[in-house]
Amino acid sequence: MMALLLAQRVILVKLEFEAVPTSLKPQVYEHLHDSGVEFLAGDYQPPTTP
Asked: Is the Cβ–Cβ distance between 25 and 11 less than 8 Å?
């Protein structure tokens, strides 16, 4: 739920992706990707799962 809120704030340019807590970045990135605006995450690369 918090990741969705932070993703919305990034989309609305109320928060920079870099300011998102490290523990929530993967989930926030997922929401950004699902919304088609993953470019707002800059150079962030989500962790890969083996």
From this structure: no
Angle of helix 25-34 relative to helix 2-11, nearest 10 degrees? 60
Q: How far apart are CA 18 and CA 29, in angstroms?
A: 11
Structure tokens at 8: 């919305």
- For residue range 21-35, list pLDDT tens digits in order: 999 999 999 999 999
Classified as helix, coil or strand, 13 is coil
Q: How far is CA 36 from the centre of its chain?
A: 11
pTM: 0.92
How many other C-beta atoms can be found within 10 angstroms of the C-beta atom of residue 26?
Answer: 14
